[in-house]
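ARCHIVE CARD
Drawer: 12
Card no.: 0347
Subject: one protein chain, sequence and derived structure
Cross-reference: see card 0346
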Amino acid sequence: MRRSMVAGYDTPSVRERNLAKELRTLRRAAQLQGKDVAGRLGWSASKVSRIENGRIGIGVEDLELLIALYAVPYERATFLRRLADSIRAKGWWDAYRETLNPGYGSLIKLEAGSSALRSYCVLVPHALLMTRDFARQIILLAPQSPSASELEHRLEVVRRRQEVLQARGDREPLQLSVILDESFLHRRVVSPEGDEAGRALMRQQLERLLADAERPNVTLRLLPLTVGLPPVTVGSFSILGSTATGSPDVVYMENKSRIFFIDAESEVNSYVQDFELIASWALTPAASADRIRRRVADLDS
């Protein structure tokens, strides 16, 4: 499977989407397909697609190449240059640029510029649904524990990342659909403060899942243990939908050391089909919430 590390994503603002639309219109007027543009400029076809979907910004040199290729008239070219200059927007993550690894920084920007996220979570809930204490526990499980200041820094990034679930000015909240393997409910959280502290961490996390599931933009479903082996065995993955197009266009997977991004259309569609297959095996949101509540009651007993 081809995996591509995608870098340089920015939040698609209205102006970015307008620029993307302009460039798409100009290409079509020049009677060129994306692969034709890619071939003439020595780019990948996915780069052309991401520019036209507003998923990545466009540098000065690349814009000039497109203007020349499409033979854009002077006045319209001037407009495009001004529009491109005005869309170098920054987000809260820029304050953390020096401390975030490139993959994680790209992921945060991608989530902020997406309209929807679908995620299949095998071992732990998605980071957008984690409590601060549970996220701390996950971070501290690493062989090399961070310093106290680095730990607080990373927890603050998680908190800010979760803001995509809230409305932001004229931006709608991210539509989040998560399928969580039921095995998570039965995992033992080991705490240096003892078993009761571990049970409290799990109880708080489950209560957080129930609370987030009440949000109108969040759907949480469990994949029950009774289905046997999952119908898809690739492990956890997440699918992002572009704000510009409303369609899924990037898949990401995280491991211990890096984040993999997949943006080839055929592969993204394959993961969409995988998610839909898993969803067909999952419990309903109501049944999932009932099962989580029963587990919370068990922890209280």
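Annotation on reverse: The first strand starts at residue 114 and ends at 121. Confidence is low (pLDDT under 50) at residues 1-13.
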